[in-house]
Specification:
56 residues; mainly alpha; 38% helix; 0% strand
Length: 56
């Protein structure tokens, strides 16, 4: 029953929680993708992880 309600709420909200990006600002310049991945994999599955740097 709970699965049905979750699916119904997802359809009504127009959200697809299986396709989510998380943007995090103000990471330390020395942060690596491996470190960032390690922080979030303890919470749940992480499909991919990228650290983008501004070299300005």
């Amino acid at each position: 029953m709970s699965d049905h309600n979750d699916q119904q709420q997802q359809q009504c909200s127009g959200r697809d929680d299986s396709r989510t990006n998380l943007i995090i600002n103000y990471l330390p310049q020395s942060m690596t993708e491996k470190e960032l991945y390690s922080m979030f994999v303890t919470i749940g599955p992480v499909e991919s992880c990228r650290v983008m740097k501004d070299y300005k």
